[in-house]
Amino acid sequence: MATPTKPMCCVTIGHMTLLMQADKGMKLVELMLHAVECERGYRIPEKYMVGDQPRVELFMVKPGQIHMPPGAGESMPVRRSRDPRLLK
Fold this sequence. Notes:
Helix content is 12%, strand content 30%. The chain is α+β, with helices and mostly antiparallel strands. The protein has a domain at 8-62. A three-stranded antiparallel β-sheet has the order 2-1-5, with helices on one face. It has a two-stranded antiparallel sheet with strand order 3-4. 3% of the residues are buried.
């Protein structure tokens, strides 16, 4: 796959960094301004403990900074079914 031609950015949310088109990254950061972390409790009834706002960063990436390993981006990710099935 060739180097992307559209402006690209990296968005860091907590400890995860994602590479995407800059316009989509800006939208994601805007949405994350309204989010807070939460921890799910597994008691009955379920409860969610509200935490702090996540750390969110956006930085622009130059095309020369992106390294695409052979075969990257050529296959679609496997979509997981909502109905888990047992393997035979």
